[in-house]
Design a protein that fits this description.
Blueprint (H helix, E strand, L loop, with lengths): L6 H8 L4 E5 L6 H8 L4 E4 L3 H9 L1 H6 L5 E4 L7 H11 L7 E4 L3 H11 L4 E5 L5 H6 L7 H7 L14 H15 L10 H13 L3 E2 L2 H8 L3 H13 L3 E6 L13 E4 L2 H7 L5 H6 L3 H19 L6 E5 L5 E7 L3 E6 L11 H10 L5 E6 L5 E3 L2 E5 L9
Parallel strand pairs: 1-4, 1-5, 2-3, 3-4, 7-9, 11-12, 12-14
Antiparallel strand pairs: 6-8, 7-8, 9-10, 10-11, 13-14
Helix pairs in contact: 8-13, 11-12
């Protein structure tokens, strides 16, 4: 098993809360992480019909049958189990880390836990592998584009499986539509929803335009807003909001859309090889998507909010990402291989506008070495996942 950076965060949360839910996209390794982190806990899955029927028949007695707690997989398949967990926590001694819940349907799992377990449960959002995790497992390729093209979903790195990315992503999308989206979208709209996902891929790394997506898909803007929420909740996409610092009245207020995994993104863009990616007009947007995803994983693996924004004014001046962490960092993301000084021009201009003596700037680029030149950090792609301002 590849060690997960989020394991220490999971253990930290489990040392405080009696129930911890692990959420994240399908196939991100949630169950594997839970079992590896708590090897002595009983593992139960409600995919097992017998277990599901036992839990449904008498949820309170079912939970009481595990005095040392348990890992409950696919917990959302027995909705009454959440009220039973609440009752159990309230009626017994407060025991941190007693129950660990996972599930493939983020919508129902998080909704049920949020409604029933307020103050009693914590959440860990687990995304696919990061650069740091692949580096520690000696699985990071020498060049960035093969990694960007393949993506970082754990099954693609399982030595006992030999998935071809194209085939795996086709199956992944089918499963996602059948098991997650079908609950939220009318059956006769599923094929349109598939088209919608592909249209969104073209918009990754761009300002969100619901009207443009609606025209391309052939549905209304309110429908697009609802469908975008589905993709975001299921960790297929995420948004960067515009920088809220008051640097002028001409600041753009529209968020930017990004996919969480560039392998899925490349598949949806119908790129069939690394060479296709290198020649694609979407190359820059895909690289930017990859960098933003790595920054987000670093924060979420620590159990923190991403706190990532971007800056763009109505004259077109833009800084790709603003990381408001210990220090504020203005980050420009480039597909260049050399740390040229011109790459940092926008971030330096942003620092002048912001006039914050603690703010700093960085350029994420595709070269092999990280360095500092004239107070600008040039960060190699290999270090994007461990960038710590």
């Amino acid at each position: 098993m590849i060690n997960r950076a989020a394991e220490s965060t999971l253990l930290r949360l489990a040392s405080q809360f009696p129930v911890v839910g692990i959420t994240g996209p399908r196939q991100s390794g949630k169950t594997t992480l839970a079992q590896h982190s708590f090897p002595d806990k009983r593992y139960i899955t409600f995919d097992d019909k017998n277990m599901r029927e036992l839990a449904s028949a008498n949820p309170i007695d079912f939970i009481s049958a595990f005095p040392n707690g348990a890992i409950i997989d696919e917990a959302q398949k027995v909705p009454d189990i959440f009220e039973a967990l609440k009752y159990h926590v309230d009626q017994t001694k407060w025991t941190p880390g007693k129950f660990i819940l996972t599930g493939s349907s983020q919508f129902r799992l998080k909704k049920n836990m949020t409604e029933s377990m307020s103050g009693r449960a914590a959440f860990l959002n687990l995304l696919p592998f990061s650069i740091c995790e692949l580096t520690n497992a000696a699985l990071l390729p020498e060049r960035p584009y093969p990694l960007i093209f393949k993506g970082e979903y754990p099954p693609l790195y399982d030595p006992e499986k030999h998935f071809i990315p194209h085939d795996w992503f086709e199956s992944y999308i089918d499963t996602y539509l059948d098991r997650d989206v079908k609950e939220l979208v009318k059956p006769d709209n599923l094929s349109t929803f598939r088209k919608f996902i592909q249209v969104c891929a073209v918009h990754s790394g761009q300002l969100l335009s619901k009207e443009s997506i609606a025209r391309d898909v052939g549905v209304s803007s309110p429908t697009i807003a609802s469908w975008l929420s589905i993709l975001e909740t299921s960790f297929i996409i995420h948004f960067l909001e515009p920088d809220s610092n008051n640097l002028g009245k001409t600041v753009v207020k529209t968020p930017k859309l990004y996919f969480v995994d560039t392998g899925l993104l490349c598949h949806l863009l119908r790129l069939e090889s690394v060479e296709d990616l290198l020649l694609s007009r979407h190359k820059g947007a895909v690289v930017e998507t990859f960098a933003v995803s790595e920054l987000m994983k670093q924060r979420m693996n620590q159990g923190r909010k991403p706190n990532l924004t971007f800056f763009r004014d109505k004259n077109g001046f833009e800084v790709d990402t603003i990381a408001d962490w210990k220090h504020t960092f203005a980050i420009e993301i480039k597909s260049a291989n050399e740390p040229e000084s011109k790459l940092s021009s926008n971030t330096r201009k942003y620092l002048e506008l912001r006039q914050d003596e603690n703010a700093r700037n960085a350029v994420f680029y595709l070269g092999g070495d990280s360095m500092t030149i004239n107070n600008t950090a040039y960060v190699s792609w290999k270090d994007w996942g461990s960038f710590i301002p």
